[in-house]
Each structure stands twice: as C-alpha cells, then as structure tokens.
Fold each of these.
Amino acid sequence: NAGVTQTPKFRILKIGQSMTLQCTQDMNHNYMYWYRQDPGMGLKLIYYSVGAGITDKGEVPNGYNVSRSTTEDFPLRLELAAPSQTSVYFCASSHDRPPYEQYFGPGTRLTVT
Amino acid sequence: AQSVAQPEDQVNVAEGNPLTVKCTYSVSGNPYLFWYVQYPNRGLQFLLKYITGDNLVKGSYGFEAEFNKSQTSFHLKKPSALVSDSALYFCAVRDGAGANNLFFGTGTRLTVIP
C-alpha cells in the first residue's frame, strides 16, 4: 500500500545544477500536484496535472518544469538551481471527483548552495 | 480569490485539556474545507473535510471541526489533547474554479504539554 512515493528524500545541489524530483502514485488518481513548503509560509502550488499529457502552472512555477506521460508519474524538473529553490517539495494526488482530499508523499528536502 | 488564514502560529495546551486551532477562509461559492496534520519530517496527512451537510465534522484521531458560514470559520477541535497531538496543522480551502487545487494556510504549531 505505497500511496504517493517521492525520491530522493534529500539532495544538495550547487547553484546552476539541474535535477529531477520523482513522484509516483499507485491509487490511479488523475490529479497530481507539486508543492513547495518554506518555513512559516505554508504550502505553495508549483504545478498540477489533471491527467496524462495535461499540466498547468500553479502559484509559483518559475524555475520549474513538469511532465505527465503516465497516470502514475509526475516528475518535477529544476533547471539552473538557485538558492531560492531551497525548500521541501511535496507531491500529492487526488481523485477528480468529490470529496477531493489530497494524499501527500513524504517530501524531498532540497538545499541549493 | 480563495484564501485561508490561521491567525495563531503557535498554540500550547495542557494534556487532557480541550484544544482549538483556528481557521478562517475566503472563497467564492460553496467552500470545500480541509484540515491536514504534519508530523516532523513527514508529509501532510488528511484529518477531516467539510463539503456539505452537518456543520460539525468528525475526523481522524478524535479531531472534529466546526463549520460556521456566517463567521467564515472552520476551527479544528479536540475535547482532550494528547501529547502525541503535537504537530503542525494546516487548514486548506479548495479552489472551485481550478482542477482541485488547494490553498493552504501558513500552519499552526500545536504543542501539548504533559
């Protein structure tokens, strides 16, 4: 009963490097989301997807890209990492019908130095 | 535009006492409201939701929340706090215009004192 899984758990990047955060869900949810969590700021939506092949920007998309080639996977790509992208990243998924609660992965803690 | 406010960054309560974590919201249309809990170094866990119906919603681990439309509030409550309830609590409201996007409050850290 895996739910939403994320890899890696921790990562340190140098400024300008790139990386992909992986997210997989096994609940057959159409909707998937990427959030970042900064101290005292709650969660901010980066990108979301309503199904394979469909993605859209959230509140804070700059510096990130996503793709959704399958229902299960929703990777988040960081290009040219910057210190401002130091954060904890959470992937989530949900059904596309009520009651809509989202299920979260354990998170990836990213530090850019 | 949708928004959520959690006016208290920190709530301290003695073990065995009732607890309340406050949340107010602003949304166009009917609100879908949620409470999540986050334990250290973990993802968010769903606690309870209000979609429609009774204003008092019961959820996991003995928590409940009271929806008050006139005050646009959705406060989280528990009759008797446990030390294990110590965690970070987030209130969220669904963006009805979008897919299923949630707007989160900034979180309230609950500390239950033995």
Amino acid sequence: GQNIDQPTEMTATEGAIVQINCTYQTSGFNGLFWYQQHAGEAPTFLSYNVLDGLEEKGRFSSFLSRSKGYSYLLLKELQMKDSASYLCAVGAQKLVFGQGTRLTINP
Amino acid sequence: ETGVTQSPTHLIKTRGQQVTLRCSSQSGHNTVSWYQQALGQGPQFIFQYYREEENGRGNFPPRFSGLQFPNYSSELNVNALELDDSALYLCASSPRQGDNSPLHFGNGTRLTVT
C-alpha cells in the first residue's frame, strides 16, 4: 500500500520563507508531485521530482530523498496569493495524495 | 487551448438516487481520471479511462462506474447514493497514458447527498 503524511495546517508571514514537508511509504515509486489548490478551485501542478535533489522553479523549489521517503516544498518571498492548500502526491497518473497542507499567509 | 471542463458545478441529490457527472478533457489529451475529494482531504483516485476502457481503479465499490467516449470526454456515474458520497469530484486529463506528465484538473463538481 501507499501512505503519505503532511502537516494539516501551517501559517507564515508575507515575504518570509516556508517549508512544507511530506513523507511517504510506497510499494513502488514513479515520482512525487506537488499541487496547489485554492479553495473551491482545481489543483494546479507545481513540481515533479523523480530523482534525488532539488528542483527550483522561480519562488518555488521541491526536494526529494528517495532513500528517506521524504520531500519538501519550499516557498520563498511569500505573497498573500500563496494562501492555499498544498498537496503532495506519489505515483504516475494514478496518484495517491496526502491530505494536503492548508497554508495561511498573514500580512 | 481549452482546459478540462466539468458539469454541473454543483449538484444536490437524495440518498438512493443516481447521478451522472461529465468531463471534457483538455484538447489533445486521451486519458481521463476521476478523483473524489472529501472536505479537508486530498483527492482519492476512483478510476482512469484510456481508449474508452477502464485502465485502473481505486478502492471504490462497483456502484461507481464510468465511460469514455471517442472524443475522450468522460462520465462518472454513481448509483444508490450514500451520504458519504458528498464530496468534490475532480476530473483530470493527461496527454498520454502511463507516463509522468502532470495531470490537468477541472474545477470539479460539488455533490451534496441529503
């Protein structure tokens, strides 16, 4: 089976940096995705990691350690619009999602 | 480029009824997946359709069924609705079956069962 854990809620301040962690246990591994989901909207793709290391894309970066079953999403220069849920998911197209981390940005 | 569109956006049904949800995949995408997202939870994989056939299924009972049409659009049908079926139902399409291309999600159908 597959199990994914991420914190339920996090709070950060506008302009700061926040790291959202995700740990997973899978019987096989095809890659790890991060999605952003604003309330009432569709999840949108942020990043994909299949090899160990850091992938940087503008203000967002994602890290993967396959040996540790661990990933994190790093958000820099936080903006109010970054308030959303962040979903960690493993698999290929038949994704297994964590419960999501609701991030609140305060001014 | 047209994204993934779902209809209706909201729906209220009574326990025991049947419901059909519809999805048009993004242009050029031949694979469609359906997910159920309960409030405060991450999406759960229901099933995937490729070339008009079911191609993988999650832990959902047979009263959850689907179809894919030659134009790659899809339907999700749920029979004998239960209160726990209340959720956001998300459709996602991808350009190719089996690879690691990101899923493109629609805005979902919010189903309430009373």
